[in-house]
Amino acid sequence: xxxxxxxxxxxxxxxxxxxxxxxxxxxxxxxxxxxxxxxxxxxxxxxxxxxxxxxxxxxxxxxxxxxxxxxxxxxxxxxxxxxxxxxxxxxxxxxxxxxxxxxxxxxxxxxxxxxxxxxxxxx
Length: 123
Prior knowledge:
Layout: E1 4-10, H1 13-28, E2 32-33, E3 40-45, H2 50-66, E4 71-75, H3 79-82, E5 90-92, H4 101-105
Parallel strand pairs: 1-2, 1-3, 3-4, 4-5
Domain MTTase N-terminal: 3-110
InterPro entries: Methylthiotransferase_N (IPR013848), Methylthiotransferase_N_sf (IPR038135), Ribosomal_uS12_MeSTrfase_RimO (IPR005840)
Organism: marine sediment metagenome
């Protein structure tokens, strides 16, 4: 059975682009997207405002409930701000290292370049 992934993106167009790159990398490695019961969840979130922080934390908690067995990875500018608030089982990938996130999940695999194939349905 193929591994499943979910990506939650909160924030700017840069986050949307980067999340699409994560998705493309994971699909190339043979994973499939799933809203629930994912094996891997990546949260790419913004922390520009207090409201964005709260929205991101609540969204992460909801995602964890729907994907209880998943490995969780948090990146984006929020990562440094919420490290003490979130569960220890969420792996924090600093914003400066986000291009290596999928390589950190799969260190033994040849991970495709961090770029996107298409950017459909994004504004």
